[in-house]
Structure formats: structure tokens, C-alpha cells
Specification:
By secondary structure, the chain is an all-alpha fold. The chain has one domain: Up-down Bundle (Amino acid/polyamine transporter I). Helices cover 78% and strands 0% of the residues. It is a multi-pass membrane protein.
């Protein structure tokens, strides 16, 4: 009888934790996009398993900066943006200014990639499909609001994780005729600095995503109670999921594409075709739709969460900067403007997917240094109660992360000027 009570109590606790999840899962959905589908897969395709440790290291070193969103809001019930404002209006202005640029570039990048995946199943141009992706994403967000986004993302993340694990299992069972690891080209060459920086820029995501997590947590708390412990569990669940799936996508690239002799095309439609065709050639034609579903779910969920996340932070940032205390939300107009500007950027690049994504990822890496510093400063600030500030381990990890980010940023600048 006692065992039954203990089991029931344990199940109730698990159920309560799962109901409280949402912001962390949304963060994972935003993260598992171009960084995983393109950068991780490309890393595995071109260099085998050599960059697996770097991907894990990047996730570890960025952890304190991402965790700031959930931890600060769980402790204060304020958003990160309000925290920046308390440190000084200039910090919030810096964050918001950089966020405008990142919002337009990131929306364009993920939307074009989603459209590129759709070209394999819908016979329309990538520009038309990009418009369709934007309109469907906006419809979901405007009419469904946060509750629909929360529920939809949980389903998508479950389906994405399941289908990706099936895909990599099939890949392990079909690895024949692949180049041995000893024959792999080394990624530690001067020519590949740009690729390494681009890969790390969105691995697992741009650090400003921490502010989205903060705002999503506030929105979640409007409909139900979420304790600090639950909020941190939710964040950790989402973050660990992104790290694991980053390695899974690298495994797909290493097992399926590595040694094939194929080079990725800059064209979005051709890139999508190469990605899906190379998988299906090795794993069987019957898996073509499986790979297509994995790719589309991966990047569509990213597109929806990216539009919502950037729009929320810009809406909140502008309201705080203008001292606007009105409860009226300008979220929908902000979404429409960001989407329209993103579409203009897509038209400018004319379907050249990889150059656009590389531009967005490098931009993310260069601004990451500033966002990381802002979050570290906030989590060690005297404005935060002592018990909620980062302890010695997180402080040391943060400093190591900052040194790594600054060092690679300087290396990239030198590489770009001398290449």
C-alpha cells in the first residue's frame, strides 16, 4: 500500500513538472533550426565526427548565459529586459538596437530554409513559399496566441525528437561505403575559420533567445503557477534536448553524407534536394518523406518561435524605453513589420540560402559577446538577491565562456580582414 502511495506521489510530481514546461521547450524549438539542420549536419558531412566535442563544448560554455533568462525571471518575476533597464537605460538600448538587426536577419534565414524544404514537395518558387510560410506562422501566432504556440510546440518537439532518432538509427544500420575517419579532412585549417564561427554562432541558438525564454515564462505564469524549481527544470530539459539533437544531426551528416563527394549548393531549393536525396540514397527511398518531415518540422517550429520571440522582446523593449505603461500590446504590428522586412531580405538574396544563413550565423556570433556580457552582469548584480546570484562555479564557467567568445570573435575579425 505504501509503495502504491509513493508511486502515485511520484507520478503526480512528474505530471506537475510536465504541465509547467513550455518556455524551455519553446526555446528548444527556436534553437533546433539552422544551427542543427544546416550547421551540425554540414559539420558531420564535411568533417565526420571531428567537431562533435566542439559542439558539446559550445553548449556547455554558453549555458550560464542562456540560463539567465529562466533564473532571473523565476527569482524576480521580471523579464531580462527589465533587468537590463535597472542596470541603466543604455544597456536596454544596446540590447534593443542589436535585437532589431538580429530579428530581421534571423527571420529571413529560418523562413528561407523552411521554404527551401517545402520546394521538395510543393512546386512553387522559394519566394512564394517563403511568403506562405510567413503568413501561416503569423496566423498561428496572431489567432492562437501563446497557448496554441505552447501546445503546438510540445507536439512538434516530440515528433521531431522521435523522427530524428529513427532517422539516425536507420543511418547506423545503413553505413556502407563511407570514408574512414582517418581520411577525413581536418577542420582546423585557416580556411575554415568562417565556417567554425558560423556554426558556433547559432549553437545552440543566439543568446538573445534567453530573453524570449524570460518573456515566455512570464506569459506562462499568467495562466498557471510555475515555481522557480519548475522553471529551471523546464529550461534544463529544453537545453539538454538541443545539445543532444545537435550531436544527433552531426551523426546523420557523418553517417550518411561524409565521404559522398557532394558539396552543398548555395541555392535553397538545391540544398534541400541534396539534403533529402543524400539521406534517402543511403537509408532507402522509403525514408525520403521521413527526412522531409524531420527537416520541415525542425525549421518550421524555429520560424514560428523566432517570429514570436523577437517580436515579444522588441515590443517589450520599446515600451520600457518609452516609459509606456499602457497594457495595450503592439505584438501583432511588430510581428508584421519584422516579417515584411525579413521577406525583403529573402528577395535580396534571391534564393541563395547558404550565404544568407552564414551571414546570419556570423552576425549572431559577433553580437553574442555583448548579449552574454549583459546576462552575466545581470546575474552577478547587487540588484539581484544574494541567493539568486550565480555562485562560484557558474561565475567561473561564465568567465571561461566570455574569454572563448571574445577570442573567437577577434580571431574571426583577423581572418576576415586577411583572407
Amino acid at each position: 500500500m505504501q509503495n502504491n502511495k509513493n508511486n502515485l506521489s511520484f507520478m503526480v510530481q512528474i505530471n506537475t513538472l510536465l504541465k509547467a514546461t513550455g518556455p524551455g521547450i519553446l526555446m528548444a524549438a527556436a534553437a533546433i533550426g539552422a544551427s542543427h539542420l544546416v550547421a551540425s549536419t554540414r559539420a558531420g558531412a564535411e568533417f565526420g565526427w571531428q567537431l562533435a566535442w566542439l559542439i558539446l563544448l559550445v553548449n556547455i560554455l554558453k549555458y550560464p548565459f542562456f540560463a539567465a533568462g529562466a533564473r532571473y525571471t523565476a527569482a524576480t518575476d521580471e523579464s531580462l529586459l527589465q533587468g537590463y533597464q535597472k542596470q541603466g537605460k543604455g544597456y536596454l538600448m544596446l540590447f534593443t538596437g542589436l535585437n532589431v538587426i538580429a530579428a530581421i536577419a534571423s527571420t529571413a534565414g529560418v523562413c528561407m530554409l523552411t521554404a527551401a524544404m517545402l520546394t521538395q514537395f510543393v512546386p512553387l518558387s522559394i519566394d512564394v513559399l517563403a511568403l506562405a510560410v510567413l503568413l501561416s506562422s503569423l496566423a498561428l501566432l496572431i489567432f492562437g496566441h501563446y497557448k496554441l504556440l505552447d501546445k503546438m510546440t510540445k507536439v512538434i518537439m516530440f515528433a521531431l525528437t522521435l523522427t530524428t532518432l529513427i532517422a539516425v538509427t536507420l543511418a547506423f544500420n545503413h553505413q556502407t561505403g563511407l570514408v574512414a575517419p582517418s581520411a577525413s579532412e581536418s577542420p582546423w585549417q585557416w580556411a575554415y575559420v568562417g565556417f567554425l564561427v558560423a556554426m558556433m554562432g547559432w549553437m545552440p541558438a543566439p543568446i538573445e533567445v534567453s530573453a524570449w525564454n524570460s518573456l515566455w515564462l512570464i506569459e506562462k505564469r499568467k495562466s498557471q503557477t510555475v515555481t522557480a524549481k519548475q522553471a529551471i527544470f523546464d529550461f534544463n530539459l529544453g537545453y539538454v534536448t538541443t545539445a543532444i539533437l545537435a550531436i544527433v544531426f552531426l551523426a546523420l551528416g557523418a553517417l550518411v553524407m561524409h565521404g559522398s563527394g557532394e558539396r552543398f549548393s548555395d541555392s535553397g531549393a538545391v540544398f534541400a534536394s541534396q539534403l533529402i536525396t543524400l539521406y534517402s540514397q543511403v537509408m532507402g527511398n522509403e525514408t525520403r518523406y521521413l527526412i522531409g518531415i524531420v527537416a520541415f518540422l525542425c525549421i518550421f517550429s524555429t520560424t514560428v518561435t523566432v517570429i514570436d520571440g523577437y517580436s515579444r522582446t522588441l515590443d517589450m523593449g520599446w515600451k520600457l524605453l518609452s516609459n509606456n505603461t499602457s497594457p495595450r500590446s503592439y505584438l501583432t504590428p511588430v510581428m508584421l513589420v519584422i516579417s515584411a522586412l525579413g521577406l525583403m531580405l529573402i528577395l535580396f538574396f534571391k534564393g541563395a540560402l547558404l550565404p544568407l544563413l552564414e551571414f546570419v550565423m556570423i552576425l549572431a556570433f559577433m553580437t553574442t559577446v555583448i548579449f552574454a556580457w549583459l546576462n552575466f552582469r545581470l546575474m552577478t548584480s547587487k540588484n539581484l538577491p544574494q541567493e539568486h546570484r550565480y555562485g562560484p562555479i557558474m561565475v567561473v564557467l561564465s568567465w571561461i565562456g566570455l574569454v572563448y567568445l571574445v577570442s573567437f570573435a577577434l580571431l574571426f575579425i583577423y581572418w576576415y580582414l586577411t583572407k
